[in-house]
Amino acid sequence: MNITLQQMKTLDAVLKHGSIQAGAKILNKTHPSVITAIKKMEAELGFNLFDRSGYRSTLTKEGVAFYKTTREILNSINELAAQAQHLARHEEPELNIAIGDITPLPETLKPLRLFSENNRFTRLNLLFENLEGAIERLLEGKADLMIHHINKTDNRLEYKDFCNVKVVPVAATGFLKVPFSQNLKPSNLNKYTQCIIRNTACSLEPVNYFVNNHSPHITVGDQHTKKEIILQGMAWGHMPLFLVEDELKTGRLISIESKYIKSHTFDIVVARLHKNIRGIMAEALWSKF
């Protein structure tokens, strides 16, 4: 069997426009040439596509099944042609975005969704990183963009302010056996387990974010697991306020912020490396923030 693309397009034009005459006009062909093309296709297939016993020809059940597959093939070819144009314009087939562990996802995904809706041939790979892992992926060239907090004096980076995230020290109600006061010190927590996040950076010098080096530790890989550990009364720790706001309101968690155990507000930014030349899609994504 040797069915050509042109034969499939001929069948599609006839059925899409309702008649051989209309299909022929769209294809810029004569009426007899379209009839001949369809009959040749039927001969090649070994079955009739059309039932011609009535006043108007209609698809046979075999014709219905064959045309369904024909449409899928033509749609795939159109998609392939569009993708080829995308690549011919040197538009990147994929972009990597490093997202930090305290970056709020709902706010982050909105611009990414808008980009994806308009650029379906560029795949977005989301790299979820902890602590210095996000900036390390960017500096290594493994991420085109990062959304996390940075040292804003780092002249290797350009950035746009994105949002602010407050990180607060919390514990489950009843976890601490010492009375809470504004004079609570880290030394008062030395015997209480602290939950901390595992750093996904491999080569950058780690920064100590709120870690009490005299406490026992439980190390976890993400903020949601950390929250559950704290809720279960297994440890205390610092959490992004947006993740624990409801639990603080209902009393499942309490703030243990004091004069000595501080909260901190981080500026979350969208950052990229300073470069002279950028890809078309990388620029388009940057413009969404």
UniProtKB/TrEMBL annotation:
Q: What Pfam families does its record include? A: HTH_1 (PF00126), LysR_substrate (PF03466)
UniProt cross-references to SUPFAM superfamilies, sorted A to Z: Periplasmic binding protein-like II, Winged helix' DNA-binding domain
Which molecular function terms from Gene Ontology are attached?
A: DNA-binding transcription factor activity; transcription cis-regulatory region binding
Q: Does the keyword Transport apply?
A: no
Keyword terms: DNA-binding, Transcription, Transcription regulation
Entries under PROSITE patterns matching the protein: HTH_LYSR
Domain (HTH lysR-type): give its ranges.
Answer: 3-60
- InterPro entries, from UniProt? LysR_HTH_N, LysR_subst-bd, WH-like_DNA-bd_sf, WH_DNA-bd_sf
Family according to the record: Belongs to the LysR transcriptional regulatory family.
Protein name (Swiss-Prot/TrEMBL): HTH lysR-type domain-containing protein
Species annotation: hydrothermal vent metagenome
